[in-house]
Amino acid sequence: MTSFLKNTQMNFMKREDEFYRNFKISLNNYKNFFQSDHWLFNNKKKIKLFTSKNLKEFRKNGLSYGLDDQFYNKKETNKLFNILREQYGKKALNALLEKKNIGNPKSFVKKDNFFFTGNELVHIKHLLDFKDNISLPKKNIVCEIGSGYGSLISKIIKTYKSKVILIDLPESNFLSHYYLKMIFPKKKFFVSSQIKNRLTKEQIINNDIIILCPWDKIPKIKIDFFINSRSMMEMTYETIRHYFNLIKANLKIGGYFLCINRYYKDTVGYPIELIKYPFGNNWQVLISKKSWLQDHIHYFFLKKSKNLLKDIHNEMEKINIFSIEVKKKDQFFLRRILPTLIYKIYKVSKYRVLKYFNEI
Predict the structure, then answer these.
(1) HEC assignment per residue over 279-320
(2) Cα–Cα distance for residue pair 230/251, rounded to 1 Å
(3) Concatenated DSSP letters for 15-46?
(4) Which CATH architecture has domain 136-354?
(5) Parallel/antiparallel/unpaired status of strands 223-229 and 141-145
(6) Cα dist from 290 to 152, 156, 297, 298, 301, whole Å
(7) Model-level pTM?
(8) CA–CA distance, 209 with 235 (Å, rounded to integer)
(9) Residue 325: in which H helix or E strand, if any?
(10) Quick one: pLDDT at residue 359?
(11) pLDDT for 189-199, tens place per residue?
């Protein structure tokens, strides 16, 4: 074995240690307030998979379960690719694809030396949908709440050269740390385990990719763009309020918020509805529509205003109609036939009773 290959393997092992070390320290600091029943259930199923050796194939061995839509087969993925290429052009699409098959997903397509799945193509569509509606400064900061394994934010870094702050549970950070390091090996990373007493402005300024846990307090720093894609719908209302307070305190006037979430979901133990999110009225609605390929999810792209507006109020009336349509098609019989209020009372009561008995 050549010395070059040995050094490469040793460097990779050091990286693996770095990923697992941060994960282990974050687990020790876990604040259960931020882990809903949805993620408690999902992460328990994967608990034995969280090892450094499993990172290389994390999209094949189950580690990315719940964070990675891999239900698109190769035929469907090729169809989505052709739709995007026709709409946006080959050059724009290729600029956002990877030449590395990171995580070795079960069903991937290789085209022109690029590897991708349907999941990446959906994230590319999300970005290209708002691209013409956004103007970011040269030195911009983007914060993604619930970054999963890092697919969407990787494309935003490529497009806007952004400094990014990622906030997610340790189980997700374990994957995004690895995934983004494989794409951006020269970027400066700062992770939760490096915080001594508190996170400082200097640590944010001096690094490119900052990966935090929900309980790590962010200093007062103005952020240009907040993102939450398909994870607030899996949080409790208390956690959702926590993040909205963070957004309202740190997002610049004129800054943007991309919120892509289900109209209705109840895997946390009780119903979480988009119309109940505490947006407030200081938002200009730039895009409001059903999400691409996902009629049960809403795509909201908002701009923060210093003035109170009626935009959100008007949109919520439309969203409520969409929510009713989604519930009528629900596969769960009780949710479909019971009046909304009765079903909510049933779910909240069940949640509280189960929580009480789990705590005694």
Answers:
(1) CCCCEEEEEEEEECCEEEEEEEEEEECCCCCCHHHHHHHHHH
(2) 20
(3) HHHHHHHHHHHHHHT--GGG--HHHHHHHHHH
(4) 3-Layer(aba) Sandwich (3.40)
(5) parallel
(6) 18, 21, 6, 5, 12
(7) 0.88
(8) 24
(9) helix 311-328
(10) 58
(11) 999 999 999 99
